[in-house]
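Postdoc handover notes: sequence design on the structure in folder B. Input tokens:
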């Protein structure tokens, strides 16, 4: 029978849990960049519309 409490398995589990946390952090960072770019485009479009007098 496999020793579930072995040091190797515990270290592997901690490694993969940490990797998942890092992946979630990276995903959040990407979403943040996309959202900022979206907001920037909306603001630029609004400024352009105001300058052209289309409001």
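Designed sequence:
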């Amino acid at each position: 029978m496999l020793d579930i409490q072995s040091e190797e398995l515990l270290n592997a589990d901690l490694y993969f849990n940490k990797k998942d946390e890092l992946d979630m952090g990276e995903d959040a960072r990407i979403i943040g960049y996309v959202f900022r770019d979206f907001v920037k485009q909306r603001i630029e479009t609004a400024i352009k519309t105001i300058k052209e007098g289309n409001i």
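Context for whoever picks this up: The CA atoms of residues 2 and 20 lie 25 Å apart. Don't rerun without checking with the PI first.
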